[in-house]
Amino acid sequence: MICTSAMPLPLTRVHVARASLRGSVAEHCGGQDGRLATDAHGRARATCACLEDRQACLSGSTSPWPNGAPFALFLSHDVDQVHDRGFYRTLGDVNHLQRVWRGKEPGHAAACCRRIARSLFRPKDEKRQFQRILEIEAAHGWRSTFFFLEGYRWSRYGSRYRLEDPRVRELASLLTDAGCEIGAHGGYHDFNSAEGYRKSADRIERAFGVRPVGIRNHLLRLSCPETWKAQAKAGFLYDATFGLRERAGFRDDRLHPFCPVEPGQGAEIALVFGREDSGL
Q1: Between the CA of residue 10 and those of 32, 180, 183, 211, 245, what are the distances in Å?
Q2: Partner of 145 for a Cys bridge, out of 69, 76, 131, 217, CB 3.0 to 4.6 A?
Q3: 201, 238 in Cβ contact below 8 A?
Q4: Given the DSSP bridges, would you call strands 272-273 and 238-239 parallel, antiparallel or unpaired?
Q5: pLDDT tens digits for range 256-269
Q6: Which residues, in sequence order, are CB contacts of 16 under 8 Å at separation 6+?
Q7: What are the backbone dihedrals phi and psi of residue 2, each rounded to the nearest 5 degrees, phi first?
Q8: Angle at the Cα of 95 (from 93 to 100), degrees rounded to 5?
Q9: Burial class, 237, CB count within 10 angstroms (exposed 0-12 / middle 13-18 / buried 19+)
């Protein structure tokens, strides 16, 4: 499954002014320590106005986008699954189906049954699925980022493919040849682990021959500022996790990339952050 979202243009192309703290961190972030309120998966539930800048600013420019463009869009895809037929993929669907039947999690039982049947008898061609996305983007002159998930395949929230699989490597080559970017989809079990994030980047580089500079955590898991500090320590240049999981739109009305600062200290964290807008 490829989850598609939208956010501003590649963040390494935008120079963003330094952010500063604004008012009481606890007032804006929902906690006395300035951390975002999160759910069981570590996903942020509240908005966070710990950063004063409401928009990115370019020195001497009236537009924050390259060449004075009036707006910009950064297309991205979370590559949670690749193969339509696979042991861990089918096992995950079966487990999801039984949890839906037992009322343990939301979902559509009929659609899940159809997906299981399709994977067993008429699986989709994974290469054709990626080619179709590239064809659509090429027709409009677009290029996008694909965040590849790296994690334990046996885990409920893990990856359902191996980066070293020749078929997956072929897909990565297809994407890079088309001018697309390869990013890291931070593993569920590596949450807030700089070493875990670094290992994911290492594995992607070994498998695809390109080192990712961008990251988006799986299931939008985020805690402020621990997630950002770990990502920066792992060597990533930008993050795309700071988005809304429950509805479309921009968190805290932030339409542009921004540089975060550590709550209570004012020290800038060496990352540029973007939006994930699930509305597109």
Answers
A1: 34, 11, 11, 16, 21
A2: 76
A3: no
A4: parallel
A5: 777 777 766 666 67
A6: 53, 56, 57, 64, 256, 257, 258, 259, 272
A7: -115, 120
A8: 90
A9: middle
Q: Is the peptide bond before 225 cis (omega within 30 degrees of 0)?
A: yes
Backbone angles phi and psi of 38, in degrees to 5: -130, 165
133-138: long-range pairs with CB below 8 Å, 24+:
133/2, 133/77, 134/174, 134/175, 134/178, 134/180, 137/75, 137/178, 138/178
Q: Which two tokens stand for residue 227?
A: 């997630």
Helix (H, G, I), strand (E, B) or coil at 118: helix
Q: What is the mean pLDDT of residues 86-111?
A: 86
Q: Indicate whether 37 pLDDT > 70.
A: no
Q: Can you give the pLDDT at residue 256?
A: 73
pLDDT, tens digit (0-9, with 9 covering 90-100), for 117-148: 988 888 888 899 999 999 999 999 999 999 99
| Mean predicted confidence (pLDDT) in 22-28 | 31
CB pairs under 8 A, 24+ apart, for 251-254? 251/44, 251/47, 251/48, 251/275, 252/47, 252/48, 252/49, 253/54, 254/54, 254/55
